[in-house]
Design a protein that fits this description.
The complex is a heterodimer of chains A (294) and B (361). Chain A is mostly helical. Chain A has one domain (60-289): MetI-like (MetI-like fold). Chain A is 74% helix and 0% strand. The longest helix of chain A is centred in the last third of the chain and has 35 residues, at 255-289. Chain A starts with 10 loop residues before the first helix and ends in a 5-residue tail after the last helix. Chain B has eight helices and 20 strands. Chain B has helices at residues 45-53, 95-105, 110-123, 139-151, 169-186, 197-203, 221-226, 231-236; strands spanning 7-16, 19-30, 34-38, 60-65, 68-69, 80-83, 157-161, 190-194, 206-211, 214-219, 241-250, 255-260, 263-268, 278-283, 289-290, 299-309, 314-320, 325-330, 339-343, 350-352. In chain B, the strands form four sheets. A six-stranded mixed sheet of chain B has the order 6-7-8-3-9-10, with helices on both faces. In chain B, a hairpin with a 2-residue loop joins strand 1 and strand 2 (19-30). In chain B, helix 2 crosses helix 3 and helix 3 packs across helix 4 (139-151). The radius of gyration of chain B is 24 Å and the shape is elongated. Chain B starts with 6 loop residues before the first strand and ends in a 9-residue tail after the last strand. Classes of the chains: A mainly alpha (294), B alpha+beta (361). Chains A and B meet through helix 8, helix 9 and helix 12 of A and strand 6, helix 2 and helix 4 of B.
Amino acid sequence: MRRGKAGELSELDLMAIACLLPSLLYVLVMFVYPFLYGIYLSIRPLKADGFSLANYLAFFKDQYQYKTVAITFRLAVPNTIVVVAFSLLFAYSMRRGIWLERAITTILVLPISLGVILLSQGILGFYGGKGWFNQMLLGLGLLEEPLVLTHNFTGVMLSLFMQQFPFCFLMLLGYISGIDPSIENSARTLGANPWTVFHRVMLPLIAPGLAIAFALVFVMSFATFPSAILLGQPTGATRTIAIAAYAQAFEMFDMPYASAIAVIMGFFQLAGLLVIILLRKRMVMAATMGVGKR
Amino acid sequence: MKETIDSLRFRITKRFGTKTVLQDFGLEVRGKQFITFLGPSGCGKSTALNIIAGLIPATDGEVWIDGERIDHLPPEKRGFGMVFQNYALFPHMTVFANIAFGLQLQRRPAAEIRRRVQEMLDLVQLPGFEGRYPGQLSGGQQQRIAIARALVLHPRLLLLDEPLSNLDAKLRIEMRTEIKRLHTSLGLTSIYVTHDQVEALSLSDWVVVMKDGILMQEGPPQEIHDQPASVFVADFMGFRNFFPAQVAILGPDRHVEVTGDSMRIQGKTRHIFSPGASVVAAIRPDDVGIGGDAKTPNAFRAKVDIVEYLGREDEAILTLEAGRRLWVRTSTRLTPGEKVTVVLPPDRVIFLPPEGSGGTT
């Protein structure tokens, strides 16, 4: 649509700005200001006057701290891949509706509504050393010793999976079932078997939704905090970067250092998103250009 | 794979839960034909086409081609081409890649693929469109590409599922001619699904009229058009005027005279009725004559109620003296309120068994 001359605001523009104002204000107050304040705090270390990058240097000099980045990646990356892969599998096979769809969807989605704490308690009870899961395997004689599934890496993975799978599954189900079924039908009549339909036709169409799913699950996993404390070893194997920031802020009372860790965490999350976006571009390109090559 | 078929035979029943969508819907055709499944929405015509394509499993029944039973085959093994109402092009692929898709799956050499895609683009009159994406094409162009994509594989049977319903009126006529041209020049066997009787009549060698999953009538277009076997088919074929009546006189040579609502209508019947039987007399709006002597047979006095100007002709709703409404299409200019004599030419009136009487051809 043509608007008024450059530099001139039409009535429509003013109206749009007025409508956007409340949400803009909200974003400014609730996000932009705290974010900028956090950055500001992080470069005003407690021990020095004025601005300095001392907090950042301290983080990367201290093995106990910088190892948290590696730990967080080790949790977040496999978890993201597993969650998205399972969600894709379920959502793709349910795209045209299945028997008892509503009941199955409800069961799959239920964990979302329970909250992390209750879920974690449940996992502790069920998968713990004396939990039903181990008791059953021991009782069946499949095990000699109970499996250690909680208060370690596995426990955190289990918890993250159960929290994020429903969310990711629902998102992908919505995305995939929105694709016109006649597109895959036409591919079938042109000689494509179900697998070819999936990887030549459907996957490229799902790719944008898949990228969003990867991005959101990754960011959520990377920021994991309650699961890592309740089901992991918050001082050792699952000391994620969020725990490190929390410890600095509320155990060491060094807010600027905690802010610096939070900024570092944000940086790695952004880096993760960037990788996902680049991968998505390559994937779509490959699907479109893969024509004629084998 | 053979590029044309000699015979197609099927008989299918489809139920979704307790709802029967197709009841023993069957057909047998020989040679290269253009077959149309014609019916209102929900009559099961698209379901039937999808079952033949293998995209929906039938509840019961068989599909045979050239003596080979194919209903157990997945769609990709049937060697049919299919064109969809919403084009169903792959949005992430160029026009070239869309048309080449099936050939690539057959692992044809690149040079052959290029040549055949090129030929197809020429055939559908869109040369030079290789690099475009479906989103950059108009609806008509997309449908041409979809047809090219199906035809490039030389399908032994071409299935078209309401391919023109998403196009505007002018384009629809253009594409209709185009489809007819392709069908004739390539010597294909095609099944075409539509709810539009003009499309069905103009394209087909054989029309199959369906209602509620049941085959109502089949035959060449002229026969369906001139001699509908039931009130439903007649209504679908443009007989707007129906007069329930009883058989009064049965003369020689299939001459019949019926009475109903104090009107006497005579003509010739193709159906065999007994005296006193309930019948429905029907006539098309464009077959009603205006003016003449009110004393001749099949002439009635009527008052003009509504006139719609349609250019060359008017469409008018009249009320007969007997109280019934009469739709008329005529080049005689009428004015609302005017009293006229209408004639229902005896050779234009058809007599049908009443709806629900189970009458057949």
